[in-house]
Each structure stands twice: as C-alpha cells, then as structure tokens.
Design goal:
Layout (H helix, E strand, L loop, with lengths): L18 H21 L7 E7 L8 E6 L38 H21 L10 H28 L1 H10 L24 H22 L5 H39 L12 H17 L7 H9 L20 E8 L2 E8 L4 H26 L24 E2 L5 E2 L1 H11 L3 H9 L31 E2 L1
Antiparallel strand pairs: 1-2, 1-7, 3-4, 5-6
C-alpha cells in the first residue's frame, strides 16, 4: 500500500476510512506540534535537507529535499502486511498473528508501547540545544534528521495507542507529551533518557550506544504476535539504520581527528591542540555504554518471561534461533554477584531473556570499538579503546548497588570513589569537551576536534548547503 500524502496526517493505514480515529489523531497533532516548538530543536532554521519516507518497500523508500522543520510530514507508516504471518514463539506459536489486542494482554502491550513511545520524544528533548554548537552543516542536518525521525517514532506508538487501546490509550498518548527528559516532577520513564546530551561527543555516543538499544528492542517487538506493532517496528528499524550510522561514523571521526593530532604533535594530551584525548573518549564510552546496558532491565525478569510466553515480545532474530521457541525447559547462564565476587547462575532461559538480548547488543557494540581501534591502528596507535565490564557503573539489575571496575573487579566503596574519575567523565573533562563546542555553519567548514565525513548525504558533497539558517 502506498503512502497517502494528501491527508493532513500522511499514512498507509487507510486513516481516511476511519473517521473517529482520524479525528482523534488530528486533535493530538497540534499538541505534538506545540511540543515540537517548545521542546524540539532550539536553533531556528529556514529549512533542512531531509529525507521523508515515500514508500515502505525495499527500494527507493525515501525522498530528499529542503524542508522547513515544522513542516516535516510526520506520518504513520507500517511495513507491508504479510497475510500468512504466524506467531513464531510462546504459547500461541503457530497461530495466526493478531490484528486486534487480546483482552488478557491489553495492559502488558500498552505498557510496552508506552515505554517505547516515551523514549522517542525524550531523545529529541535531550538533543534540543545541540544545533547551537554543531561542528558543520552536514552534522547539523544529521542531528535534525534523527530528531524528526524520533518524532515520527512517537507518532508510530501514538497511532497504536489511539487505534487499539481506546480511552486509556488516548490518555497515555497525551501523557507522552507531558513527561519531559530530566524533569523533577514528571521525568521520562527509563534512566538513560533523563541524562543530558550537552555536547556532540555525547550525541555521537548516544546515537551509537543508546539508539542501538532501540535497534535491539525494536527487533524484539518486531516479532510481536500483535501484528500492527510488529509492522510498525519493522519500518522504524529502517529509519534507525541512519541513527546508527550517525553514531558510528561520528565516533570514527572524533577518533580520527584525535589520532591525527597525537601524531602531528607527538603528544597524547591533545587538549592543547583543540582535540579530545583518547582517555576522555574512553570515559564517554564507559558512561554511555553502561547507562545503555541499564535499558535492558534486570538479568532475571518475570516481566520478560511473561511477555515471551504470551507472544508480545520475542528474541532478537527469533526465527533464526534453532530451538523450540517456547523455552519451557531451556537453561541460561547469567552473571551475578555472590558474596562480593563475580559468579554465574544457571536459570530458566525464559526469565533470563533480558540478558539474552543484552548479549546480542554487547556483541554488536564490540564491532564499533574494533573499528575505532582500527582507525587508531592506521595511525600507528593503539589498540586502546575497549568496552568496560557489563557490571561497571550499573543502576539496574544484579550489579546495581555494587561497584565493579572496568576490568571486572568488585570494589569496596572507597576504592570506587578513589578511582571513578579515571573511568567516568569528570567535571573537568566535560568542561573541556563543552569548551570545544562552537558552531561552524559555513558550508564545507568543520570544527577542529572532529574529522570531516568521507562522503556527504544522498550523493551531495560535504560543502553542500544542507541547512539554510
Ligand atoms: N530505567 O523486570 P525488569 C529507543 C524498571 S530505546 C528505569 O528487569 P523488564 C530509543 C522496569 O520497568 C528502546 N526503570 O524490567 C533510543 C520494572 O518496573 P516495574 C526503548 C527501569 O520489564 C534512542 C522494574 O524496573 N524500548 O527506542 O523486564 C533514541 C524491574 O525491571 C529500567 C524499550 O525499552 C531503566 N533503565 O525490562 C530514541 C522496549 N529498566 O515493573 C529511542 C519496551 C527497568 O517494577 N520496554 N526498569 O514497575 C521493555 O521491553 C521493558 O520494559 C524493559 C525493562 C526492557 C525496558
Ligand atoms: Fe526511535
Ligand atoms: Fe533512533
């Protein structure tokens, strides 16, 4: 089905056929736009070179053009329906997927959708001020592209809430605009989404590590027996690939620039040459990785076991797994702390599914670190960058309340306090990084702390006017 752009809300869900739903969403739309005006990008711009979805299939799904940000066509785009699709796991395995929400799973499904929906506008709020210090027009454009798509991901969840959850769904859709990142009274739901993203190194780390949690969570919701959720997540994942790209290549370019400066001056402390030292990059990795690990929930969780058995949330690449997809007998090994030491526990695999997904995520994160070390290697440096132990700096799950060093030793409180500044960004590190954040808005120019990208967007050169201020 094509996307209907003649409607006030572009969509491929036949919104025109459902007047009540259309009216409800059209009354939410101005509230969304008001939220965008108040909490979205703080830098005023004329227009931005953005991609907009024009189809949901494999080929040529996006169209690029200069668009004034508030006129971006946020819409509702679900991946194509597969009429033969069957539930791939859990107690309803083999049955046709659901086009409606079964009464007994209503509360759980709504909760998953609300948690997913809450993260999307949260990230826009966190990134609100970054436009004021963009290192280039190319980067500024990528920031705004990520922002409009996170806004669209909010639309994706709000559509489900309005279309399938009645009154309480509409109330939750309203509440998604009322909680705010970092707010004292009504914060966002998950920890990482109340942290600050005050500088561009944080932004690149966030899009690498935290958007990547999004990729894995969406991957599990894509498997859902509730077909509209599965289809909406499938299309979101397509957009998500660009967010991963921004993070991966963003950190690449910081590492590249740091390596150049280290070689040029034969000095590790590149601060005096306007760069970001490797040990500071490592601390930012440690921070963003550990808060993102918290997003997977506890290593043992009855919530996740129930979601799986009910068919609401599957595993990463569920259909490629070679087991019974029920996990009633299976056992998994998860880390834990026992008598002040790291140990392992054997548990029913069903209750360990958060740890299973986290394992997939960690393996993916390793590829980024390898890549950054290869960049260092090409300058005759390193490898020095690494991921800290999964127990490092954790607030959720088995490691919460313990102190674990990056190399995996359980520490006493005083040992942690004495060493934390070597592992996590200090006030001094943050001040230095912030001091480098001065906007560069001239086409083809770039800030001194980051290397230019290898190529532009949509075949355009780096010096293209991606944003008109
Ligand atoms: N912060 O049973 P447990 C994205 C709560 S990112 C605060 O282990 P469960 C994006 C938990 O809710 C992807 N609270 O948790 C990225 C539970 O509360 P209750 C977002 C937390 O349910 C970048 C209690 O602690 N999508 O898309 O197994 C930019 C016990 O926990 C946290 C999803 O997360 C935390 N970090 O798993 C833009 C998918 N962690 O029940 C967008 C939907 C746990 O005691 N969510 N708690 O009140 C889920 O699948 C699950 O809710 C979670 C938690 C994986 C988050
Ligand atoms: Fe998203
Ligand atoms: Fe994203």
């Amino acid at each position: 089905m094509g996307i209907d752009y003649t409607e006030r809300i572009p969509n491929n869900v036949d919104l025109a056929e459902d007047r009540r739903l259309k009216r409800a969403l059209e009354s939410w739309q101005p509230r969304f736009l008001q939220w965008w005006a108040e909490m979205g990008p703080a830098l005023p711009t004329q227009d931005v070179y953005l991609r907009t979805a024009v189809a949901v299939g494999r080929e040529g799904w996006a169209h690029f053009d200069h668009v004034p940000l508030p006129e971006y066509r946020w819409g509702i785009f679900l991946a194509e329906r597969d009429a033969d699709r069957r539930i791939a796991f859990g107690q309803h395995k083999g049955q046709p997927v659901w086009q409606q929400v079964p009464g007994e799973y209503r509360a759980d499904l709504q909760r998953l959708i609300v948690i997913q929906g809450d993260t999307e506008p949260a990230s826009v709020e966190q990134q609100r001020r970054l436009g004021l210090s963009a290192p280039s027009l190319y980067d500024l454009r990528n920031l705004f592209q990520v922002n409009v798509e996170e806004g669209r991901h909010l639309w994706a969840m709000v559509y489900l809430l309005h279309a399938y959850f009645g009154r309480s769904g509409r109330d939750e859709a309203e509440a998604l605009l009322l909680r705010n990142s970092g707010s004292e009274d009504s914060p966002r739901i998950l920890g990482a989404f109340n942290e600050e993203t005050p500088d561009w190194l944080s932004f690149f780390m966030f899009t690498y590590f935290t958007d990547r949690d999004g990729k894995y969570q969406l991957g599990t919701l894509k498997e859902s027996a509730f077909d509209p959720l599965g289809r909406t997540c499938e299309f979101m994942l397509k957009e998500e690939a660009h967010h991963m790209f921004v993070g991966t290549t963003g950190v690449d370019r910081v590492v590249e620039r740091t390596a150049q400066l280290m070689r040029e001056h034969d000095d590790d402390d590149v601060r005096k040459y306007g760069g970001i030292p490797l040990n500071v990059i490592q601390k930012y990795i440690n921070f963003h990785y550990s808060v993102s690990l918290d997003l997977f929930g506890g290593e043992t969780s009855t919530n996740v076991a129930n979601y799986y058995t009910a068919g609401l949330k599957g595993r990463w690449q569920e259909e490629r797994r070679k087991d019974d997809h029920l996990l009633t007998e299976a056992v998994a090994v998860v880390p834990r702390i026992e008598d002040g030491r790291l140990a392992e526990a054997r548990l029913p695999a069903l209750t360990a599914l958060n740890a299973d997904l986290r394992g997939e995520y960690v393996a993916d994160c390793v590829t980024g670190v390898n890549r950054w070390n290869r960049i260092l290697g090409s300058h005759g440096l390193g490898p020095v960058l690494h991921l800290p132990h999964v127990g490092f700096n954790r607030k959720v799950g088995t490691f919460a309340g313990h102190h674990v060093s990056p190399d995996g030793r359980v520490l006493a409180q005083h040992e942690w306090e004495a060493a934390a500044g070597r592992w996590l960004p200090t006030a001094e590190d943050k001040t230095h990084v912030l001091s480098l954040m001065r906007p560069v808005y001239e086409p083809g120019k770039i800030a001194a702390w980051v290397a230019p990208p290898r190529s532009g967007i949509d075949g355009r050169p780096f010096d293209y006017e991606y944003v008109h201020l």
